[in-house]
Request: fold
Amino acid sequence: MDESASIEDLGKKIDELMEKIKDFEDEKRDIVGELIESIEEFTKAGLVKIVRTLKKDPHGKELLLEMVREPEVYALFLKHKIIKEDDRVRAIKALELIKPYIRSHGGDVEFVDIREDTLYVKLKGACLGCSQVSFTLQQTILEAVQAYVPRIKKVELYKDSPVEAFVDLNSESDDYVKAFKLEDLQEGKIYRFSEGNIDAVVVIWNGNVYAYRNSCAHQGAPLHDGYITEEGNIVCPFHGFQYSVLSGECITVPYIQLEPIYVKVKEGYVWLKP
Ligand code: FES
Reply:
């Protein structure tokens, strides 16, 4: 096998071979099918062992996250159901695929969030300022993302001032939502609470509770599959940006930070303010 073959070439090769198998007599096809299944089970068992071992060690976990950013490793883990695929991850991957095209036109796109059937993105550079260009780009983005996340029906531009869908996150309402029983939460772990207008990560650190919007300040990716370092930083699982649990301040790059969510502990429960 050519070691420099791209993942697309390898995928094509597998598809071609699978097509050929279809012409085999039943008995031979069954044997090949069983052989493929056995090889896959064998591969999965090995991968699960590797992942479990790496996850036990903080450095191993970091390495694992780094590896998952490689498309080949990501595809392999996804295929064997070792990582969860959620719509945000899929949308971010789809955007990564069209970024070279957008950049070749002097612009850029950033994932912000998915709400219901709408994808929110930020356009940058040459994409801004011309409504015709941004309309065409929104169409291109919609087509690219729909191929991965069929539920997306609209692409909206997120401007730095909150758009309607985000207004509730900044609401002045006094209503808090009951999120977790305090005794169910362990120190130094990331918990996700997603309900209605809230998608938050909650962390207990030195006995205090902290909550932030579940969106990395780098490219808006969800943080809940990240982890907490010994120093008390939340690590984004996508490109490894680190944020102080105490303040949400980004350690990796100055001047950006996570959006805090009001949190209180009352009657043994953690409450969040939408
Ligand atoms: S999205 Fe890039 S570090 Fe979080």
Summary: The two ends are 53 Å apart (CA to CA). The longest strand covers residues 107-115.
